[in-house]
């Protein structure tokens, strides 16, 4: 019987990645990471853009509700039209009225809402309070209610007297969230918000 010697088969040597293959893999990975980061960045800016508009919208609505509430409880409004009988409507950038009066002590609180602007064409809505006693000023304070306004107007309709029949407040706001902090995606500008509300003084409806 002839025995055949079993000679081991030469094993193939294992070969690693070449430098070219490694560079190609790194290039593909870098491209995918860049695309992913760009998509995340766009998504994040879009989220901030949306939340910015929503936040400013909420602030503006709260201010609008406060303004209309003050109009309902106020009296002796100004400015007056030149001829309330011939033309009972006037449009103004400010509104002034008596918010409180105590005849016994002779004290009054006068509130003025006023649009103020700067050289850049941006407006703010200011709230001013003047305390009077027997016609003399005993205290004053003021503060901004809204910033980043494109415009604000007061359309006032008077009756004979002249008594204010109805006041319409028109606010056009450019969200910037410094009511938050101006953040916007590059090349993306938040759309303007327009709020219009009307109110009549209770003294007129009574």
Task: Describe the 3D structure.
This protein is an alpha+beta fold and 206 residues long. The chain has a domain at 37-92 and 146-205. It contains 2 helices and 8 strands. The protein has helices at residues 19-73, 202-205; strands at 75-78, 89-92, 94-102, 107-117, 123-133, 136-159, 163-173, 193-199. Strands 1, 2, 3, 4, 5, 6, 7 and 8 form an 8-stranded antiparallel sheet that branches. Strand 3 (94-102) and strand 4 form a beta hairpin. It is elongated and about 100 Å long. The termini are far apart. The model is unreliable at 178-185 (pLDDT under 50).
Name the descriptors.
39% strand, 8-stranded antiparallel beta sheet, 2 helices, elongated
Query: Averaged pLDDT, please?
Result: 81
Q: How many helices in DSSP terms?
A: 2
Largest sheet geometry: 8 strands, antiparallel
What are the secondary-structure elements, in order, as H or E? HEEEEEEEEH
Number of strands: 8
Proportion in helices? 25-40%
Radius of gyration from the alpha-carbon trace, in angstroms: 34 Å
Shape: elongated
Straight-line N-to-C gap? 130 Å
- DSSP strand (E) fraction? 35-45%
Q: What class, by secondary structure content?
A: alpha+beta
Low-confidence stretches: 178-185
SSE order and pairing:
Layout lengths: L18 H55 L1 E4 L10 E4 L1 E9 L4 E11 L5 E11 L2 E24 L3 E11 L19 E7 L2 H4 L1
Antiparallel strand pairs: 1-3, 2-6, 3-4, 4-5, 5-6, 6-7, 7-8
């Amino acid at each position: 019987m002839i025995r055949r010697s079993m000679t081991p088969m030469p094993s193939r040597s294992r070969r690693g990645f070449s430098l070219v293959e490694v560079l190609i893999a790194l290039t593909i990975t870098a491209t995918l990471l860049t695309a992913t980061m760009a998509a995340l960045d766009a998504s994040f800016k879009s989220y901030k853009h949306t939340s910015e508009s929503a936040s400013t919208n909420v602030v503006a609505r709260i201010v609008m509700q406060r303004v209309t509430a003050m109009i309902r409880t106020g009296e002796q409004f100004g400015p007056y039209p030149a001829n309330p009988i011939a033309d009972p409507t006037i449009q103004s950038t400010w509104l002034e009225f008596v918010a409180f009066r105590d005849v016994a002590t002779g004290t009054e609180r006068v509130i003025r809402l006023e649009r103020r602007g700067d050289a850049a064409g941006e407006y703010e809505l200011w709230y001013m309070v003047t305390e009077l006693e027997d016609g003399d000023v005993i205290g004053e304070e003021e503060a901004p209610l809204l910033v980043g306004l494109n415009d604000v107007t007061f359309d006032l309709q008077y009756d004979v007297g002249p008594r204010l029949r109805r006041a319409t407040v028109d606010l056009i706001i450019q969200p910037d969230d410094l009511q938050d902090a101006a953040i916007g995606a590059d090349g993306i500008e938040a759309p303007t918000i327009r709020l219009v509300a009307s109110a009549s003084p209770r003294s007129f409806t009574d």
